Amino acid sequence: MHISSQFDSGNINVVHAKSPEDILLSIPKDNQSEFAQWFHFRLMGETFVTHKMTIQGLATSAYPEGWKDYKVLASYDRQTWFRVPTSFDGDNLTFSLTLEQSSVYFA
């Protein structure tokens, strides 16, 4: 399993990725700014395995209310996107996906 934001528009910090069911992430602050609000990253993992991700610390993001009804977007090719079930508890955004391919992008 590997998580990367090393591409144009990539943005995520990996706090830990202990297992597919325990992936903890955070959003870095924008360059030369105190604002943190967006993410875009690639997950490479085992197909047909459910990966559960939590992005922590969103209560201190630039606009925390924006996460309230947000549904994470996912794409296997960065052309066709679909929403994944997402929950927000006021600080943590949690979402899961069973991979159909070994590489998927989230935003």
Give your account of this protein's structure.
This protein is mainly beta and 107 residues long. It has one domain (2-106): Immunoglobulin-like (Sandwich), CATH 2.60.40. The protein contains no helices and 10 strands. It has strands spanning 2-4, 13-19, 22-26, 41-44, 50-56, 73-75, 82-83, 86-88, 93-98, 103-106. The strands form 2 sheets. Strands 1-4-10-6-7 form a 5-stranded antiparallel sheet, with no helix packed on it. Strand 2 and strand 3 (22-26) form a beta hairpin. The protein starts with a strand and ends with a strand.
Percent of residues in helices? under 10%
CATH architecture: Sandwich
Number of strands: 10
- For the termini, the CA-CA separation is 18 Å
Strand order of the largest sheet: 1-4-10-6-7
Task: Give the count of structural domains.
Answer: 1
Derived structural class: mainly beta
The low-confidence runs, each spanning 5 or more residues with pLDDT under 50, are none
CATH class: Mainly Beta
Could you tell me the CATH topology label.
Answer: Immunoglobulin-like
**In DSSP terms, counting alpha (H) and pi (I) runs of 4 or more, how many helices?**
0
Q: What does the overall shape look like? A: globular
Return the string of H and E elements.
EEEEEEEEEE
The largest sheet, given as strand count, sense and whether it forms a barrel, is: 5 strands, antiparallel
User: What's the average pLDDT?
Assistant: 95
Strand percentage: 35-45%
Radius of gyration: 13 Å
Short account of what is shown:
Helix content is 0%, strand content 41%. It has 107 residues and is an all-beta fold. The model has no long low-confidence stretch (mean pLDDT 95).
